Amino acid sequence: MEERRQDKTRSAALEYHEYPRPGKLEIRATKPLANGRDLSRAYSPGVAEACIEIKENPNDAARYTARGNLVAVVSNGSAVLGLGNIGPLASKPVMEGKAVLFKKFANIDCFDLEIDEADPERLAAIVQSLEPSFGAINLEDIKAPECFIVEKLCREKMNIPVFHDDQHGTAIVVGAAATNALRVVGKKFEDIKIVSTGGGAAGIACLNMLLKLGVRRENVWLCDIHGLVFEGRAEDMNPQKAAYAQKSDLRTLDDVIDGADMFLGLSGPGVLKKEMVAKMADRPVIFALANPTPEIMPDEAKEVAPNAVIATGRSDFPNQVNNVLCFPFIFRGALDVGATQINDEMQIACIEGIAALARATTTAEAAAAYRGETLTFGPEYLIPKPFDPRLIGVVSTAVAKAAMESGVATRPIEDLGAYKRKLDGSVFRSALIMRPVFEASANAARNIVFAEGEDERVLRAANAMLEETTDVPILIGRPDVIEMRAERAGLPIRPNVDFQIVNPENDPRYREYWETYHDLMARRGVTPDLARAIMRTNTTAIASVMVHRGEADSLLCGTFGQYSWHLNYITQILGRGGLCPHGALSMIILEDGPLFIADTQVHHHPTPEEIARAAIGAARHVRRFGLVPHVALCSHSQFGNLDIDSGRRMRQAMDVLQSREVDFDFDGEMHVDAALDPEIRQRIFPASKLQGAANVLIFAGTDTASGVRNILKTKANGLEVGPILMGMGNRAHIVTPSITARGLLNMSAIAGTPVSDYE
Predict the structure, then answer these.
(1) Among 160, 109, 105, which Cα is nearest to 130's?
(2) Contacting residues for 48 by C-beta, under 8 A, at least 6 apart
(3) pLDDT of 161
(4) ω into 386 cis (within 30 of 0)
């Protein structure tokens, strides 16, 4: 069985690398090359202009070429993963994989360079000759002690960052994990005794880093395959090991482990025995990082030290020490400020950023990627997960700041806050476009009631609101269920402590609520008994009554159920005083910017007046995002060429808009391609009043609008913000069941904007 499983895993891995095309990388052009004009700019004669600028000012290479975002992953294949010296060609899949991680996690472009050279000085010379091509160098899988020589020579001669990830990447992540582990066990770096196995590049670099964090040199005991590294030992020594030689008569790991506060293993399987763990200090920290089999399995260590804090290099145990937490983000920060090196200050800033993230509340995105795992800071969660989207913003900004403060940045960033927001926007695609809305909502703290308060997405959104905004969440749900789910999700918030709660099963305002609902609906066939039942079971109706009574400023619902069902109760209770639904507006964030679509939910077959109102409402909301609305009324008919129902209604809606003298440009009826492409529109109808590409598409029915919305989300990787319910004075919004926790946070910001800004 096990053999078949291994064969299947091997086949799957090989197929992954071979199909649909060999390898994991490709090169894509970033500029158009569609005609002679493009060719003359990309190559001769236009390219000469960029060459001249760079000749006069070498720093302009970052302006006119990809060098400022280009890293070389360099290896000679002499120490690959757990495979050893397999040579440069066989190492290529690993280096390609490293380049993919750079691109995935930090949008850094890479070339992997496998160099057939074992001599460290010659290899260093080759790497040095690459400086004109790259903004930074990542040395990878070069065996010790040659790796120390190569890196030293390159750093001395080169004016760009040179970073040996096996050394420093491992050291940084170990430093972050150790920082938090000691916090958990209540110890300090300067007080602990460390016993380490493994005198290779990673092991030595980790010890060097721990010294920088405060560990005393005399408290470090280094062992390798030959035993303790001691003064006077001649066997298998080098200057890096000798720096940790102890003046001692002890000779074995078993001899020196007594009373150790921390074991750091970067050696091989089974090196640390249970009997040795039993000799360690109380609450020992054990980093058994050998792969694939650690120095001791966590369950074995726990048998003799149940309160041990353990990290490994494996993903199937808590606290995986994984270099991907570090290298993409330290390079991102270094490249963006044009750093000439990655120095100690930058590395320590990276450690502090990683460690701090683990102590913060876990994001919904990380929780979704690691469903079922405990992601609450403590013994089993010392460092964040690689798919925590906050890493790039927090860590890269810290690194860039440290580079500037330590004087190695050649292109300092003036506004680090704006830089961090830009980085966050690269992973949270809604971050930049939502910024004006969040800023507007910050001007007035509003109470937002969530109808489905027991949903984990709602709990995460509420927690984020409390951390990031001035708005106050109110949750409808059972207190014990909410508390249990918040605790299970690793959220610090608790009902009736951090936020108000409305318990449908037992709330002191129950009588007031059902009487209010009955007063509103008595002449619509709602009896007192029915009002009582609805106020016990229908959380959307409860939330609407709260908004009606002024106990909340706006409500959010729809994480489950049908949109029209929720809309019915909202309209019953809040559709008064001139408020009525004008339509649902969905913003779809695409690679080239946002596109607004209406009406996706409310009016299945809108009248011309309803179409016009949807266009007016959409234009108002577009301005909330700091954008200028350009509205297209879309139909299968194009500027009167077909006598069909949608065309007639759109033409009549045009008349309504023209009579209102609205303050935005619009035109119709037209096809979607004419709306989005000004050249097509100019060819078909030169007199069009619409300026440029439309960013608001108004359709003649929800079938079409919703279909376009879903196609863009599914096939164009569009990210939705919304739907935004227009016409209700910003007092209610109905989301869809596919919404994420961040989507709910975005909608809470929209709901948190004062009513006067919207309607």
Answers:
(1) 160
(2) none
(3) 96
(4) no
Residue 260 DSSP SS3: coil
Give 355-375 pLDDT, tens digit per residue. Answer: 999 998 777 666 766 666 777
**Within 376-527, where are the H helices?**
391-405, 416-427, 431-441, 456-468, 479-488, 510-521
User: To which residue do tokens 């757990």 refer?
Assistant: 82
94 touches 23 (CB < 8 A)? no
Task: Quote the tokens at residue 668.
Answer: 């119709």
- Is the confidence at residue 756, as pLDDT, over 70? no
CA distance 713 to 721: 11
Per-residue pLDDT tens over the stretch 690-712: 989 999 999 999 999 999 999 99
Beta strands across the sheet bearing 500-502: 500-502, 472-476, 447-450, 554-557, 732-734
Which segments of 49-205 are extended strands (E)?
A: 70-75, 109-114, 136-139, 162-164, 194-197
List pLDDT tens digits, range 281-320: 999 999 999 888 899 999 999 999 999 999 998 888 989 9
Q: Is 150 exposed, middle or buried (0-12, 13-18, 19+ CB in 10 A)?
A: buried
φ and ψ at residue 41, rounded to 5 degrees: -85, -40
The candidate with the shortest Cα–Cα distance to 593, out of 676, 532, 667, 533, is 676
The structure tokens listed for 576 are 């008064």
Show Cβ contacts of residue 308 under 8 Å, excluding neighbours closer than 6 positions.
Answer: 277, 280, 283, 284, 285, 286, 301, 302
One-character DSSP codes across 292-360: SS-SS-HHHHHHH-TT-EEEES-TTSSSB--GGGTHHHHHHHHHHTTBS---HHHHHHHHHHHHHHHHS
Residues 88, 76 contacting (CB under 8 angstroms): yes
Mean pLDDT computed over 192-215: 93
Give the count of beta carbons closer than 10 Å to the beta carbon of residue 579. 17
Over its C-alpha atoms, the chain yields an Rg (Å, rounded) of 31
Strands of the sheet containing 194-197, edge to edge, are 227-228, 220-224, 194-197, 262-265, 285-288, 309-312
Partnered with residue 665 across adjacent β-strands are: 630
Q: Of 551, 584, 586, nearest to 709 (Cα)?
A: 586
Q: Which residues of 420-444 are buried (b: 16+ CB within 10 A; e: fewer)?
A: bbbbbbbbbbbbbbbbbbbebbeee
- Residue 311 Rama label (left phi>0; alpha psi -120 to 50; beta): beta
Reading the block at residue 200, the tokens are 């290779």
Residues sharing a CB contact under 8 Å with residue 668, sequence separation 6 or more, in sequence order: 632, 633, 634, 635, 650, 651, 653, 654, 698
Q: Using a cut of 0.85, tell me whether the model's pTM lies above it.
A: no
**323: its two tokens:** 């270099």
Tell me what pLDDT residue 513 has: 95
pLDDT of residue 734: 97
How far apart, in Å, do the first and last CA atoms of the chain sit?
66
Burial class (CB in 10 A: 0-12, 13-18, 19+), 716: exposed
Query: For a pLDDT cut of 90, what percent of the chain falls above it?
Result: 73
Which tokens belong to 294? Answer: 């650690």
CA neighbor of 263 nearest in space, from 207, 326, 324? 207
Alpha carbon distance 285, 185 (integer Å): 8
| pLDDT tens string 378-437 | 999 999 988 888 899 999 999 999 999 999 999 999 999 999 988 987 777 777 778 788
pLDDT in tens, 80-89: 877 889 999 9
pLDDT at 758: 42
**Cα gap 183→180, rounded to integer Å:** 5
Q: Which residues are catalytic?
A: 98
| Residue 390 in tokens | 């906050």
Calculate ∠ Cα 409-410-414, nearest 5°. Answer: 75
Max distance between CA atoms of the chain, in angstroms, equals 99
**Considering Cα of 243, then 247, then 250, then 256, what sign does the dihedral take?**
negative
